[in-house]
Amino acid sequence: MTTRFRLGFLTHVQGRDDATTTYRNAQELFVVADELGFDVGWVAQHHAPQGGGGLPSPWPFLAHAAARTRHIRLGTAITILPLEHPVRLAEDVSVVDTLSGGRVEIGVGSGGSSLEYAAFGRDVDKKRELTSDGLAVLRQALSNAEVGAPGFTIQPPATDFSERIWQGVFSGPGAAFAAAGGSNLLLNRATYGYDEPTDQVQRPWADEFLARWRQPHRPRIGLSRFIFPAKDKRTAVEQIGADVVRAAQSMVKRGAFPGDLSAEGYLRRFHSFYGHPDEIIAELQQELVLPVATDLITQFNPAVPDQDTAIRALELIATEIAPALGWTPVDRSAQPNTAPAELQGALI
């Protein structure tokens, strides 16, 4: 990577305790990441329960995180757009952006859970069309144009989102579509149903996105990767292997993974980077998509490490791994506190 990239972390808001503890712990990760200098904190939206919970309503969660943090940007990777009313979503986005002092990034995608689509009365077979239609309305609303009815615009008025809308894609044509619409590109931690390594599959998608980009501002590529530093690979497998195998079984049922792999084999299928920080650094230096990424989005999912382990992993990512790849934290001593004064220290 030849220019500074932004460092992010993504949580699926999962835990082994009750929902109150799980959500509190996830909020604490945002505070820790903010203090460590992470540039962006992302959450994933899941309506159907995941192993250890999940987050169906990201915008109230991010509003709370806005009040507890000072600088870190706040995003979704992703909001499941076909299951949202795009005008109502634009209102939520604008409210959180206002409360946070302009720190919001909105990532959208189609999802794919037939159960979730059924619960919301939507046809999963039409997810692409629903996503495209919803994104067009969302863009219109966030540009403060009339939407829904003559004379209606969202409130509070949105600030400029032309460089802050992201789209999660799973193919070359999807990447080309995102570029044509001016969306930043979100690439998943792993590709499923392919025998080739994830970075070999995704690099042509990233190249297609860049080739089709026609906007005046810089294109952004957010690269999500499963990164879990530990004492060594054996220790890492002891801490996350059972969770990975459990998650892999759902992939086996869908035909995306073979059914006879070890924990290490499934970690390879999840395109995971785990073990001692030096090992992770060496492996990430060979990652094919990373050189064209503008944002590295780290996550532990599908593992659900305990809170102390998760915090320690974030510390190692921010202090050892990311700097070795060329990341430097922004000097925040010269930055204003972006949270409105009346929110500073609230809800802590």
- Shape type: globular
- Into which percentage range does the β-strand content fall? 5-15%
Sheet with the most strands? 8 strands, parallel, barrel
Unreliable residue runs: 340-348
SS-derived structural category = alpha/beta
Give me the count of strands: 9
What is the mean predicted local confidence, pLDDT?
Answer: 94
Helical content, roughly? 40-55%
Please list the strands of the largest sheet in the order they lie side by side. 1-2-3-4-5-6-7-9
Beginning-to-end CA distance, first to last residue: 37 Å
* Number of DSSP helical runs: 11
Helix and strand string, N-terminal first? EHEHEHEHHEHEHEHHEHEH
Rg over C-alpha atoms, rounded to the nearest angstrom: 19 Å
